[in-house]
Specification:
globular; mainly alpha
């Protein structure tokens, strides 16, 4: 591989994959219970949660990045709390995960919510009638039946994280140790002889994103086929 991709480019690819995997890991434990609550519960303020969760989809990414920078800089509200613990987010690799997680969370949450909405509530009611607790019903009925939506959400969040740029460049900026694929492409734009590296990164991005979307489409088709068979 080193014959056609230099260490800097390969480092950006590895870092992007690591960030995308970390985003799915940290976001999933939040998206699953929240998606289930939005799919099954009616409560006051529900619309506020939905608006807040989906806001990054409609806001310019640089606006989201600026808000994150204000919060996580050493003088910010969250930065002051984390700094004594030795946790630095702004201008650090952790900021890559935070920015990508915020920007991709709406896609993950929507897919998870749709997955739970596709589950017949009567199956959950039957399990509760037979004596299963709410948690047992969720773990043995709801979550397994919604797995395709959960997996599809993970795939979409992974793909979105690979391409995150706007919020990331505001929170982390351009540093050699924190350059993901989009950041490296941006830095190579005006560099003499950087066009070859850019085309390699573009090709890698297309392959990774295409594979993720193809996987998501396969899961969607299987889910639709399963619903047709059940009906």
């Amino acid at each position: 591989m080193s014959a056609w991709i230099d260490p800097g480019t390969w480092s950006a690819v590895r870092l992007s994959l690591l960030v995308a995997a970390s985003v799915v890991t940290v976001s999933l434990p939040v998206a699953v219970p929240l998606g289930y609550a939005l799919a099954r519960s009616q409560f006051r303020g529900k619309w506020l949660i939905e608006v807040a969760a989906n806001l990054p989809l409609v806001l310019p990414p640089v606006v989201v990045g600026w808000a994150l920078l204000v919060l996580f800089q050493p003088e910010g509200a969250l930065g002051r709390l984390l700094l004594p613990l030795g946790i630095r987010v702004a201008f650090d690799w952790k900021g890559l995960v935070v920015a990508a997680a915020v920007m991709s969370f709406p896609l993950l949450l929507r897919a998870v919510r749709l997955g739970f909405e596709s589950v017949d509530p009567r199956l959950e009611m039957a399990a509760r009638t037979l004596g299963a607790s709410r948690l047992a019903t969720f773990l043995t009925i709801s979550l397994p039946l919604a797995r395709r939506g959960v997996i599809a959400g993970c795939v979409l969040a992974f793909a979105r994280s690979l391409g995150e740029f706007g919020a990331t460049v505001m929170l982390v900026s351009q540093r050699e140790s924190t350059r993901t694929i989009p950041l490296l492409i941006y830095s190579l734009r005006d560099r003499v002889g950087g066009e070859r590296q850019i085309w390699i990164l573009v090709a890698v991005s297309v392959v990774l994103a295409g594979a993720a979307l193809a996987g998501s489409e396969i899961l969607e088709r299987r889910a639709r086929a399963g619903r047709v068979e059940e009906s």
